[in-house]
Amino acid sequence: MSNKVALIGAGAMGGAIGTRIAETGNELHVFDLDAKKVAELVAKGALATSSGADAAAKANYVILSLNSPAIVRAAVFGKEGVADGAKPGTLIIDMSSIDPEATMALAEDAKAKDLRWVDSPLSGGAPKALIGELTLMAGGEEKDVNDAHNVLKDVATNYTHMGPSGAGQTTKLINQVLCGLGFLAVAEATQLALDAGVDAAKIPQALKGGRADSALLQEYMPRFVTKDYRRTGRIDNMVKDLNGAQDLARLTNTSMPLTAVCAEVHRMLTAAGLGGEDQAALMEYFKGPAAGKLS
Questions:
Q1: 37, 128, 172, 240: which is the annotated catalytic residue?
Q2: Angstrom distance (rounded) from CA 127 to CA 130
Q3: Least enclosed by CB within 10 Å: which of 35, 160, 166, 178?
C-alpha cells in the first residue's frame, strides 16, 4: 500500500526527493511558495495543495526540505502551517540541514502538539535522491526513526539511526566538514595539475582504488577540469553548514583550523557573488593559468 506523504519545500533538493517519492508509487501532496516548483512536481504525479496545513491534513508523513531553522519553524508552527492541519501522531521528517539545538527545540514543540519528529538530513545531493541512493543520518526516538524508514527507503540506500533528536543534524555537520574540506582539496589539486601540465582529466582513473580515491575525486575533478558548473548544490549552503559546524565547535571547545580556512574560502566566493553556484565554482578561487606552466 502506498504512503500518503506531504512535501513542504520543492526547491532543488526537495524537488528531487519529491520526484523520487512520486515515482515510487507514493501519494504525494506538495506545498511550496513557488507555484512553478509545485507545478513541476504535479507534472510528475504529485498533487498540489494550498498550504502546509492542507498538505499535512492529507498525509501520514510530512517531509520538510527547507533552508533554515526559522523557515522550518514558520512552515510547521506558523499560520496555516503543518501543525494546523496534521492529524495527531503525524510523523514529521525534517530533511533540512539545520543546527542540532534548533532541531531539539522543534522536536519538543512538535511533541507538545502530539506530533512526532525525526531529523533526517542527507548526503548525496539531488542526483542521488533521483535514483534513490541517498545517505541519511537520523535522530529521534527509535520507533519514529523506524517508521520514517517506510518512506525514506524509497530515496535512500544508507539509513542510520544516530541517536536522539538532533543527532542526525550533528552527524550532517560532521559530513559537511568532510565534504567542504574534500571539495577544496580536490579543487586545489586540480589547479596544481593544470598548472604543472598534467592531464588532470586522467587523475581520477590513475588514483582509483588508492588511498586518495573518493567519491568527490571521481565526480568533481572532471567537473573542475572542464569548469562544469551545473548546479547540484550551492556554495552558500556550504557556508551555512560550515558556520553550524563552527558554532558546534565553540560549544564543544573543539579546535578546527582547517574548517576555518575552508569556511573563509566559501565566504569569499559568496561575497564575490558566487554563493548560488555549485561547488564546482570553487575553481574560480584559484584563477590560475589554464595549464602548462611547467610543460
A1: 172
A2: 5
A3: 35
